[in-house]
Design goal:
Aspartate Aminotransferase, domain 2, 40% helix, 4-stranded antiparallel beta sheet, binds pyridoxal-5'-phosphate, alpha/beta, Aspartate Aminotransferase, domain 1, 2 domains, single chain, 15 strands, 15% strand, 13 helices
């Protein structure tokens, strides 16, 4: 029986195969180092845990309104006021099952089959398939200079009459890059002039290093939230280490938010009330855990970056945020999926091939785990790539050989 064209157009992630192999090795007691992860390993904030338990103990966990509980929307209003300096109305807020769902319903609300959605390369792995799920056409914008950030002109040149939305993610997964003021100002102007929706995936916006801050699109418009095509997409997953709670949100023009809520009402209904309760508590509670996480990640970045930069032939920009480091390994193997498989096989280090993010020749190395993993992973990679190095690499009783 044939499946739909959409189902046939969606690929399985190459990362899954690597993860499955890593899990198999780990189950067999092998000393696998996972630099492929996408979630902080710290505990969720105490406020979230306590609020979740308290609700669970009532034994009354009911349906949520499709676009989120009023309490959750108020928390997002307060969050937006505090961290973006804008105060939306409740009707300009939608709560979803993760930032991913918020992005997906925004795309469904905006894109007709054949419409285009533009985003820079490298991009988050899910963007192309999310656009395809709507029947839309993904338009990838690659920097002519080979860097990880296309220019404003390159972005503008990719937009045509069928462009419905531009998707921007800053700080960026996988590069860790943060868009600068001129770029953001230009993108907002372009989108307002041409009536293109600017979907800002801000999921890492508080995980920015070196005393810097993420630049927000709203800073470059005086228009009311209803009159600008900007939509902020965010959530508790990364900053509060609450990935499994599955709570994200969108803030934008109320007509779009309403359409998104209608779609969500038939898709999943409202997000879990239990998880919303915990998310509300994390937003209103102490924010120390976010600061602690950022400081830890910054230290991990420095350790990993310091070690990988010593590998001759490897090129890497200093990540300004997130918990990823995106390095050009093409001097060793232009086929990064093959290189990732080699590193897993040779020294049991899991990485993510850059081709998944639109940049073959690169590998994404994550430093959201323990700093020892970042250190040990980088050392093993250096050994595996050094053809003239020692014949053996020892980890306790385990000996890797060439
Ligand atoms: C760039 C980006 N956007 C969105 C998400 C999804 O976030 P959530 O877990 O809240 O759905 C991720 C998760 O890896 C991400 O890296």
């Amino acid at each position: 029986m044939p499946f739909s064209r959409i189902a046939d157009s969606i690929g399985a992630s190459a990362t899954l195969a690597l993860n499955a192999e890593a899990a198999r090795l780990r189950a067999a007691g092998e000393p696998v180092i996972h630099l492929g992860g996408g979630e902080p390993k710290s505990r969720a904030p105490e406020s979230a845990v306590t609020a979740g338990i308290a609700m669970l103990e009532t034994g009354e966990v009911r349906y949520s309104p499709a676009s989120g509980t009023p309490e959750m929307k108020d928390a997002v209003v307060a969050y937006t006021e505090r961290f973006y300096g804008r105060k939306p109305e409740r009707t300009q807020v939608l709560a979803s099952a993760g930032c991913k769902q918020a992005i997906m319903v925004a795309l469904i609300a905006l894109v007709d089959p054949g419409d285009e959605v533009v985003y820079p390369v490298p991009y988050w792995v899910s963007y192309p398939d999310m656009v395809r799920l709507t029947g839309g056409v993904p338009v990838e914008v690659r920097a002519a200079d080979g860097s990880c950030q296309p220019t404003l002109d390159e972005m503008a040149a990719a937009c045509g009459p069928r462009t419905k939305a531009i998707l921007l993610n800053s700080p960026n997964n996988p590069s860790g890059g943060v868009f600068d003021q001129d770029f953001m100002r230009g993108m907002v102007k372009l989108c307002e002039e041409r009536g293109i929706h600017l979907l800002m995936d801000d999921i890492y916006h508080r995980l920015v290093f070196d005393g810097r801050q993420a630049i927000h699109g709203w800073d470059f418009t005086d228009r009311d939230l209803d009159d600008t095509p900007l939509v902020v997409l965010n959530g508790v997953s990364k900053m509060y280490a609450m990935t499994g709670f599955r709570i994200g949100w969108a803030v934008g023009p109320r007509a779009l938010i309403k359409a998104m809520g209608n779609i969500q009402s038939h898709q999943t209904g409202g997000p879990s009330t239990l998880a919303q309760k915990a998310a509300v508590a994390s937003i209103h509670g102490q924010q120390d855990s976010v600061d602690e996480l950022r400081v830890t990640l910054e230290k991990n970045r420095d350790v990993l970056l310091g070690l990988v930069r010593e590998i001759p032939g490897l090129k890497v920009e200093r990540p300004q945020g997130t918990f990823y480091c995106f390095a050009d390994f093409s001097a060793f193997d232009k086929d990064c999926a093959r290189l990732a498989a080699y590193l897993l096989d040779k020294v049991q280090v899991v990485t993510v091939p850059g081709v998944e993010f639109g940049m073959p020749g690169y590998l994404r190395l994550s430093y959201c785990g323990p700093v020892e993993d970042a250190r040990e992973g980088a050392r093993r990679i250096a050994w595996a790539l050094d053809k003239n190095g020692p014949a053996e690499y020892r980890v306790g009783d385990r000996v890797f050989t060439r």
